[in-house]
Amino acid sequence: MFTARRGKAFTLVELLVVIAIIGVLVALLLPAVQAAREASRRTQCKNNLKQMGLAALNHEGSQKFFPTGGWGWQWSGDPDRGYGRRQPGGWYYSMLSYSEHASLRGLGSDGQPEVVTPAQKSGGGQRMKTHIPIFFCPSRRGQTQFPFITGTDSVNVERPDVVARNDYAASSGSQYSVFGVSRGPDLLAGGKMPDPLKFTGYNVHTVGQSVYNGSGAEIPRGNGVVLAMSETRIAQITDGTTQTILFGEKHIQAADYEASSTAANNQGWDLGIDIDVNRWTMIPPLSDGSSNDFVGDSGLPPAAAKVLNELSQFGGPHPTGCQFVFCDGSVKTIAYDVDAETFRRLGPIDDGEVVDSGAL
Description:
This protein is an alpha+beta fold. Helices cover about 25% and strands about 10% of the residues. It contains six helices and eleven strands.
């Protein structure tokens, strides 16, 4: 009788050895795979900043000034009020037409620039929900829309249930105060728009050299590119466009990526000057994985220093540093351990304190 020859099978020990070897290989390869993915995401983030920088330069070429900071956090964009000081919306809104989003910018247009109408408010509410990929850093966000949880409504936009958020902020220079953010002027009776050039009310940025907080104390208005109702021209950047930050990644603690519950991460992208869309160079950028413990000597009490850190700071999720686009359109990565004075000098447009590029 013929008997088939049986092949040799794996023993349990051999199988366990093979599994262990595969586990070791995966453990060795996983960091390399993760690093490659992060490098790809960092490159995409850099490309986002590059596109925004080009849009801002196109804006400057057409309007003769960089995008304005708008009126304050209670105002969104108004498609009938053009560009510059008369535009209540902030720099994100002003760039829409220069980043292939002209139709989005026009949502809510009612042909009535001096009054807020229901049509304007309804269109603006839809605009605030709209996700724009270049406003998101791929290393940070998973969702594209977040519940709108802030307690204050926009004056000229219908309150949305969700908003699309942002991961980048414009540079407002190196002068920041924990009292220095503004809601902007109030709407007049009958839904009439105020004249922002004449408004001198409570806690509002003026177009002069100062802002005033609720107690009437004078605070420096700012020395950066994007300020309240600013119309900053390239010719005004006497420190050099290669030495002055335009936009950068804003610091958000990693725990708040999806919650979006902190004061500096609870709005959308469509609003006037605010800590959600503007940051300062008073203190160096901070990694999102770091705590908000203040680093350096601000001369403030610890509680105020922590607020300064959380609300004013640039920062990012990338391990190598925070990415910025400068006023010439170039994108640079600045390490988190950059010298504090060197970084501070990158915010002002005309203080004469030029930074040696080698110091970065």
